[in-house]
Write a structure and sequence with these properties.
This is YchF C-terminal domain-containing protein. Helix content is 46%, strand content 22%. It is built from 15 helices and twelve strands.
């Protein structure tokens, strides 16, 4: 899954992408007209806690992929293939910048709806099919909603309708995360974010690209001291990654042990068999059952043995609906 980072020129998206991807900022600036890709760990505090308990040889976080769009005007065609959009704005006139961006997304979707309606009307004349009529009604509903300057992601849709709308890759139907890049001396001023959250019901992260860049260059000890000095509890980049991860409809389950503690990303609503297949195809093929503990139970009780004593250790079948934070151990036979 791909998250696209975009924004007005000089809003800080290049600096943000450099921190996220680990790529050198000067190399990024040398290619402002090219799309660039990179991956980032989703720093889950639960993984950190499990690592403290198991002291494993290896730690693996879930990863997400970002794509930085060229530093030019609005590009609907490049946004079309995104699974999620991350829009970066400077704090100055942030509300106005966001309004303009959302309006551009709405206009692009209205053009697509109009084009599809024209096609459906022509098809209806040739063949009066029930499927075409249902889709035509749905597109008319979308058009009416967009004309009120509402994004399609906020429209109530039946499950079947939502699946149809998703196939068109409408820009306003995609998850959108807003990132407000504030000056360093405004890092603890939450008034701008509160204003944005009141006006738009999108996830909103406040950060200072300058502070985040400095944090990224420090050792673990110096990083903690610096963050305490500026009054933040963790890098905003880590918070942003978790918000983006959730926006993609993903959850994490964990596999733990002395060799490795690992977070595995899966779609919310996935069953145990699918989760096992994400680790290795043999697990899905030869699935027998899965041992399951809840993260909170394990942390509260302190060990697998104590979880079993408390009757909170379970064996689940292939159709078990995996929940965020499950500790899983798969049994399979191939």
């Amino acid at each position: 899954m791909k998250i696209v980072i975009t924004g007005l020129p000089q809003a800080g998206q290049q600096e943000l992408f450099s921190i996220i991807s680990g790529q050198d900022i000067e190399q990024i600036r040398q290619k402002p007209m090219e799309a660039q890709t990179g991956a980032s760990d989703v720093k889950d505090p639960r993984v950190t806690k499990l690592v403290e308990i198991f002291n494993p040889k290896k730690t693996t976080y879930a990863k997400i992929e970002y794509s930085l769009l060229p530093d030019v005007a609005f590009q609907g065609a490049l946004l079309k293939n995104a699974d999620e959009i991350c829009y970066v704005s400077l704090s100055d006139n942030a509300a106005g910048n966001i309004q303009s961006f959302v309006s551009e997304l709405i206009i692009a979707d209205m053009m697509l709806v109009d084009k599809r309606l024209e096609t459906l009307v022509k098809e209806q004349k040739k063949k009066n099919g029930e499927a075409q009529k249902k889709e035509q009604d749905l597109m008319a509903k979308c058009k009416e909603w967009l004309e009120k300057e509402n994004p399609l992601s906020k429209m109530e849709l039946a499950e079947e309708q939502a699946k149809t709308v998703k196939t068109y890759q409408f820009l306003t139907f995609k998850p959108l995360v807003l990132v407000i890049n504030v000056p360093e001396d405004k890092i603890n001023d939450r008034s701008i974010v509160r204003e944005i959250k009141t006006k738009y019901s999108y996830p909103c992260i406040q950060l200072s690209a300058g502070i985040e860049a400095e944090i990224n260059q420090l050792s673990a000890k110096d990083r903690a001291d610096f963050m305490k000095e500026v009054g933040i509890d963790e890098p905003a980049i880590d918070k942003m990654n978790r918000v983006v991860f959730e926006g993609l409809g993903l959850i994490s389950f964990f596999t733990v042990g002395e060799d490795e503690v690992r977070a595995w990303p899966i779609k919310k609503g996935a069953v145990a068999e699918e989760a096992g297949g994400g680790i290795h195809s043999d697990i899905k093929k030869g699935f027998v059952r899965v041992e399951m503990m809840k993260y909170n139970d394990f942390i509260a009780l302190g060990s697998e043995a104590k979880v079993k004593e408390a009757g909170k250790f379970s064996l689940k079948g292939r159709d078990y609906l995996v929940e965020d934070g499950d500790l899983l151990s798969f049994r399979f036979n191939v």
